[in-house]
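Action item from last week, closing it out:
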Amino acid sequence: MSGNHHLYVPGPSNVPAAVQQAIHCPMEDHRNPTIPGLITPLIEDLKKIVLTEKGKVVFFPSSGTGCWEAALQSTLNIGDTVLGASFGQFSMLWLDMCTRLQFKAITMDEEWGTGANPESYHRELSKDKDHKIKAVLVCQNETATGVRSDVLAIRKVLDDLNHPALLMVDGVSSVGSYEFRMDDWGVDCVVSGSQKGLMLPAGLGILGVSPKALEAMKSSTYPTCYFDVQDMIAKLETGFTPYTPPVNLLRGMRVALDMLLEEGLENVWKRHHRLAEGTRRAILDGWGMQLCAKEEKWYSDTVSAIVVPEGEDAVPVISTAFNTYNLALGAGLAKVAGKVFRIGHLGDLNELMLCSAIAGSEMAMMSNGIKVELGSGIAAASKYWLDNPSGA
């Protein structure tokens, strides 16, 4: 198919040309004497991305899922109790992992389209007088439904109850895109991945751990090997890794982190919010359709899940977009399969890039009998962006 491919799933995100050029390099010895000069500054700059001075950050050759596993196995013991809210595919899968790894998971089921409910956490933690709950899990951004959760509110619940559980956050599709403050929010483990806000191909899992999490590792007897965080920390302090790293991705990460830090984290957060809000205006005001997120407080700044009208099917919309217009949209997952399609708006993007996603979605919907006024989404988004210019 001629022309550019238009990628608007909520990860992998678009990789900037400069990052692609850095990745496209000859293979090299991962133990050559220049490697510490690459790895050591990367670790320090990853700390700037998750905003920790007290904690440590490591990476694994994996997706974010690998770092879910690393966080759990390195800090807990078999049979420990964990608490988490399930309100979408990925928050659900993290809790499923807990069960499969032989932890006792207390799952608080929330309506899909809402997020982590502080009242539910308060209810369950209040009952835990003996502090059997060792970790509290929160998915900051649930990509399946386009929902964000308030991590600081969950931290406040733990503090108000003086509960000692570790606070673990899935920041896979939020870190590097919108506000996350590891130290200020008292987060003990944060998980992310290279293919979202960090603007890289998939292949690197990122894990930040607090001093409290590091202390918990000393009493963990869970058998670990590949995902042993203490092993990784010790080796990274020498400037190397315990096993072969994807050096080309690390070369790309150097450029990606430089781009984010040059823009400034708060500016990155503002850009994502502004672009997301324009996309939401297209959906809500232009098309007259609904988001899967039930209320404005749940709206995600990295992905919007659009609910198709009753009786319509989102699957052919996604298929038409891909096969006819070379546009990749996110599919509905699990409970919302066929009911939503998703526009990812994270990473390296601007207004005109999102215009292609909006226009392509309009044509794909019209081609499948979903009546929207052609151009209405672009008009609503453009008006918002013009009324709210970048840097204003």
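Closing note: DSSP finds 13 helices and 14 strands in the chain.
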